[in-house]
Specification:
By secondary structure, the protein is α+β, with helices and mostly antiparallel strands. The chain has 6 helices and 7 strands, in the order ββαβααββαααββ. β4 (about 110-115) and β5 (about 120-125) form a beta hairpin. It starts with a strand and ends in a 7-residue tail after the last strand.
Length: about 210
């Protein structure tokens, strides 16, 4: 696993072309949006990011979880927000390993965590192939379904009921994405780049009470 932590400026929108995408305009608006209150923390010193390239092995998830938690704590986030975003990163990594296409020995899942003035963005990218269209449609449908609820808690309750009705062997519940929206208080988005890499992101707003 390679690690790179460095300063990052701007809103982080990538310049890569996108041939399939979620509601990215929603994400751009959120990046520009500020909170109603200001924190006393010198946030200008906290424009940081952490980048990881992860082997597609399940045992790597715990390592990413530990690195995420340490990184967020080191930059002054509260225990509440640290716990929530550690869960978000873990869910995204698990999905990346579950649905990624790792045909080449050097294939990796990439993990990017960025702290900006008003938001924290977690992005996970993994390779796909042309046979991934079913997963992409399901991903898009699930994200749009979550956004259809004014309160993510309602989506969470409905998903729990749905999961309870499914067979035990069904492992495509979509519950992890709902947890990201509800427990992680994050907005989900995704796009597929020209190289068929799928990028799924979660954006959480920073509120004053969530800083230590």
């Amino acid at each position: 696993m390679s690690v790179n932590s460095k300063s990052a400026g701007g809103n982080g929108n990538k310049g890569r072309s996108r041939k399939h995408q979620g509601s990215l305009s929603h994400r751009r608006n959120l990046d520009k949006q500020g909170p109603n209150t200001k924190t006393n923390t010198d946030i200008s010193t906290l424009r940081k990011r952490m980048d990881l390239a992860i082997e597609p092995k399940w045992e790597q998830i715990e390592s990413v979880r530990k690195k995420t938690r340490s990184f967020l704590k080191a930059h002054g986030l509260s225990t509440e927000l640290t716990d929530a975003l550690t869960m978000v990163g873990s869910e995204l990594i698990e999905n990346g390993m579950k649905y990624g296409c790792f045909e080449h020995p050097d294939s990796r899942v990439t993990f990017h965590l960025r702290i900006s003035e008003y938001n924290i963005v977690i992005e996970v990218t993994h390779p796909t192939n042309p046979n991934a269209s079913h997963h992409l449609r399901r991903l898009d449908k699930t994200i749009q379904w979550i956004r259809g609820y004014q309160d993510p808690f309602q989506a969470y309750l409905e998903k729990i009921k749905e999961v309870a009705r499914k067979p035990i062997h069904d492992n495509e519940s979509g519950l992890g994405l709902v947890r990201i929206a509800y427990e992680g208080k994050s907005i989900l988005d995704f796009f597929v780049a020209e190289d068929d890499a799928l990028n799924v992101s979660a954006i959480a707003g920073i509120q004053e009470r969530l800083w230590r």
